[in-house]
Amino acid sequence: MHTETERRSVTRREVSAWAMYDWANSAYSTILITILVSYLQDDVFPGNIGIVLYGWGIGLTMLISAIMLPILGAVADAHASKRRWLLGTAFGGSLSLVLLSLVPSHQTWLVAGLFITTNLCFEVSFGFYNGFLPELADEDHMGRVSALGYALGYLGGGLMLLLAILILLKGEGVGLSSDLVLRKRMVLGLTGLWWAVFTLPVVLFLHDKAVPLRQSQSFADAARHGIREVTTTLRNVRNYRILALFLTAFLMYNDGVQTMISQASVFAIQVLDMQAAELGQVILMIQFIALPSAFIVGWCGDHFGQKKTLMVCLVVWTLISLSAYFITTKTQFWIMAAFAALVLGGTQTVSRAIMGLMTPRKHSAEFFGFFGLSGRATSMLGPILFSTILASTGSPHLAITSLVLFFVVGITIVSSVHVDQGQDQARRENKAGITRM
Asked: What is the dihedral of CA 271, 272, 275, 277, to 10 degrees?
């Protein structure tokens, strides 16, 4: 029985197809924090209801995906089916977003249900997407391949956002509806189609490299086996002590990063009265600064060390969250957003690279399921904390500054992670797996 991923040759076309999925779904992530948040809070659920729905909706979908991903990751390992799961969640999310755009805004709870479904598919798909990384890149190129995905994501998301801004600002002049709400819904529908169309390279070119471990098992048996493996891994986490320590750190600082990304628009709406098109322009600026920054920080990680590079990124995030308390003008918000763009892609790039370096190939989907778990299990806390503080105190400044806690705790834990030792353990397990083949 094969217990090790076969290191079949990897082509540039496969790497490009993998990276294009970031291009595909990043359209949703940029529209989520600009057009969709405006649509939900201004047009469907005005007032505190919209604030709470948006924050809690993001938080709960992250929690649900955290519960699902380790189990589904183990199932994907058993059947070598990461590709099928990736496609199912990708097309499920794109379809839900298209349907959301077709539902009238007065059907409020149907809109809310489709929003949660779309976001859940988006979150779960990333677990399978990330699980391909150790199969497509060796240790020397992990950072650069990871950066390629994020960089294409920023470019694709930025182009979709540019199209959205043009529709909102210039749409009436080219014959589109004068109703701004309808134009927002048009943007949401186009985003769903973008997500689906640019997932097609995965359909055509990306395939699992692993040999199925248990070809005869049914889905239910594989799921039960996955639950047992997850339980065993959690019980014996000391066997992967360094990896577990990093995941704990990632759990904390990623919550701060993701909340800054998802809730900064809420801050801008509440404090600065920014409209959807103006928000889009800010996020567009972030996209195109983050594009080269993702490559630069990925290069720095490969040449100066992933841990050192990550620590610098986290210090910058800490300073950003503290400075947010003093933001009172749109110019200040633009400056804060520019600094966030410099480290946004870099933080994600080096985190995924560190995880890849310490992950044995035979456990790629399962352990990246844990990566998803650590990234989502408490990523519900940030959006819920932010929206609850904002709704109860009415202070966006207090809500956004509270996120500094996540970065301080993350820095403290990362400082004690010995990446080299975790990498050595992964290498030993990879060699042992080859010996047993």
From this structure: -120
Is the Cβ–Cβ distance between 36 and 42 less than 8 Å? no
Q: Are 97 and 28 in contact (CB under 8 A)?
A: yes
- Contact, 375 vs 58, CB < 8 A? no
The vertex-257 CA angle with 356 and 305, nearest 5°, equals 40
d(C-alpha 321, C-alpha 397), whole Å: 10
Q: Which CATH class is domain 12-206+220-436?
A: mainly alpha
Identify the pLDDT of residue 1: 34
2 three-state secondary structure: coil
Instruction: Read off the tokens for 26.
Output: 């990043």
pLDDT on residue 24:
94
Exposed (0-12), middle (13-18) or buried (19+): which is 436, by Cβ within 10 Å? exposed
3-state SS class at 134 = helix
Look up residue 173 and give its DSSP letter.
Answer: G
CA 18 to chain centre: 15
pTM for the complete prediction?
0.77
What pLDDT, on a 0 to 100 scale, did the predictor assign at position 215?
A: 55
Q: Which residue positions in the chain have pLDDT lower than 50?
A: 1-7, 435, 437
Residue with tokens 């199932």: 75
93: buried, middle or exposed (CB in 10 Å: 19+, 13-18, 0-12)?
buried
Listed in sequence order, the residues at least 6 apart from 325 whose beta carbon sits closer than 8 Å to its beta carbon are 397, 398, 400, 401
Cα separation, 244 vs 356, whole angstroms: 13
The CA R_g of the chain, rounded to the nearest whole Å, is 21
Residue 106, classed as helix, strand or coil, is: coil
pLDDT, tens digit, for every residue of 313-369? Answer: 999 999 999 999 999 999 999 999 999 999 987 888 888 788 878 877 666 655 665
Cα 404 versus chain centre, distance: 20
Nearest in space to 294 (alpha carbons), one of 144, 158, 137: 144
Q: d(Cα 132, Cα 87) in Å, to the nearest integer? A: 13
State how far the Cα of 200 lies from the Cα of 237, in Å rounded to an integer.
Answer: 38
User: What DSSP line would sit under 307-344, residue for residue?
Assistant: HHHHHHHHHHHHHHHHHGGG--SHHHHHHHHHHHHHHH
Give the sign of the dihedral formed by CA 306, CA 308, CA 311, CA 316: negative
Tell me, what's the pLDDT at 7?
46
- Name the residue ranges covered by the structural domains of the chain: 12-206+220-436
Indicate the burial class of 394 (C-beta count within 10 angstroms; 0-12, 13-18, 19 or more). Answer: exposed
